[in-house]
Amino acid sequence: MTLRLVLADDSILVREGLARLLVDAGFEVVAQVGDADGLLRATRDHHPDVAIVDIRMPPTHTDEGLRAAEAIRKELGTAVGILVLSQHVEPSFALRLVSDGAGGVGYLLKDRITDLDDFADAIRRIAKGGSVIDPAVVAVLVGRRARVPLDDLTERERAVLALMAEGRSNQAIGDRLSMARKTVEAHIANIFSKLELQPAADDHRRVLAVLAHLRGTG
């Protein structure tokens, strides 16, 4: 089934360019808008699978896009996935995005999107209820809290934790770090034990558990 998208960005060149790339990748772009009010209207009218949202939009260019995304989530729940795109690493915005624990959310940095296939895969994962957090944002979060029990983690466990927080499966973590799946599972068990977090079955809850811990210890 073709996924239906709404794009929100105040730059028409960015919108048009992104729309063309996404259509070529097999998505249907049902609406393009340039401000938060337009995003809310388009989402209500079209009920897309995913809304792709710039954080800073008119009139104040602060967090209008994020506030609109929060309104969409409050009104329509998980029926619409939310992918926020940003020019900057803004961990507090990422934490706001995942704070409701509902899934189907992502936070990616525009300048770090270099592979269309990876970007398309991220959209599909969000549409299915997964979470996608840019590794640069994860790194800032982990670094900011590095002195509170994350100090107990080994270097290998930190690497596994960073990939977990990106929403990677155990198999994907093993492939990335060249380790057996059982070894990954053992590292994850150690991580949850050291951070006093209970492991959960699905990847999204694992991401939320890690981010909730990072947020709560700051």
Structural features, described:
The structure is a single chain. With 218 residues, the protein is of the alpha/beta class. The chain has two domains: 4-132, Response regulator (Rossmann fold, 3-Layer(aba) Sandwich); 138-216, Response regulator (Rossmann fold, 3-Layer(aba) Sandwich). Helix content is 52%, strand content 14%. The chain contains ten helices and six strands. It has helices spanning 12-24, 36-46, 64-76, 91-98, 116-127, 135-144, 155-165, 170-177, 181-194, 203-216, and strands spanning 4-8, 28-33, 50-54, 81-86, 105-109, 131-133. It has a six-stranded parallel beta sheet with strand order 2-1-3-4-5-6, sandwiched between helices. Helix 2 (36-46) runs parallel beside helix 3, helix 7 packs across helix 9 (181-194) and helix 8 (170-177) crosses helix 9. The longest helix is centred in the C-terminal third of the chain and has 14 residues, at 181-194.
List the keywords:
218 residues, alpha/beta, Rossmann fold, 2 domains, six-stranded parallel β-sheet, 6 strands, 52% helix
